[in-house]
Amino acid sequence: MHALKKHRPLRRIVLASAATVSGMVLLLSLKPHTSPTLATADTESPAPSSSSSPSAGAGPGTRSVTGDTVQTRWGPVQVRVTIESGRLTDVTAISYPQDNPRDQEINGYALPQLRREALAAQSAQIDTVSGATYTSEGYRQSLQSALDSASR
């Protein structure tokens, strides 16, 4: 006689409940991904052209560097970084797709996440924002070119 026969529904209910609880425990025990807090700039990407200029009103040791404009499927992406005493202190997207409401919606949530990731990682080795793959890749490339220029 099989353990899960139809005349023993209570046994099936108990086994299904135990499997559900076990699955939930395993799911909740997973640790979230955390970015390293200190990393150096990756120098694999070439930086053919970028400009740098001191920030207005910036103190000694503070530089503002603009990365390359990266053409993506939905439009150009370009960032400007501020580096103070060798640390990345600000990243600003100065050019990004915003031609239609959908672009504005996507970049409205993607750009702040990319900025937080870059400041936390102190490099261009950041995660792609789901739903904003092209913007994320352009942001990463422009950020890398700015970091490369700043390290020269």
Give the arrangement of secondary structure elements.
Layout lengths: L8 H20 L22 E3 L8 E5 L3 E3 L2 E10 L2 E9 L5 H21 L11 H18 L2
Antiparallel strand pairs: 1-2, 2-4, 3-4, 4-5
Q: Could you please describe the fold and organization of this structure?
A:
This protein has a domain at 51-150: Sufe protein. Chain: A (Alpha-Beta Complex), CATH 3.90.1010.20. Mean pLDDT is 77; it is low at 34-58. α2 crosses α3. Helices cover 39% and strands 20% of the residues. It contains three helices and five strands. The termini are far apart. The chain has helices at residues 9-28, 101-121, 133-150, and strands spanning 51-53, 62-66, 70-72, 75-84, 87-95. By secondary structure, it is α+β, with helices and mostly antiparallel strands. Strands 1, 2, 3, 4 and 5 form a five-stranded antiparallel beta sheet that branches.
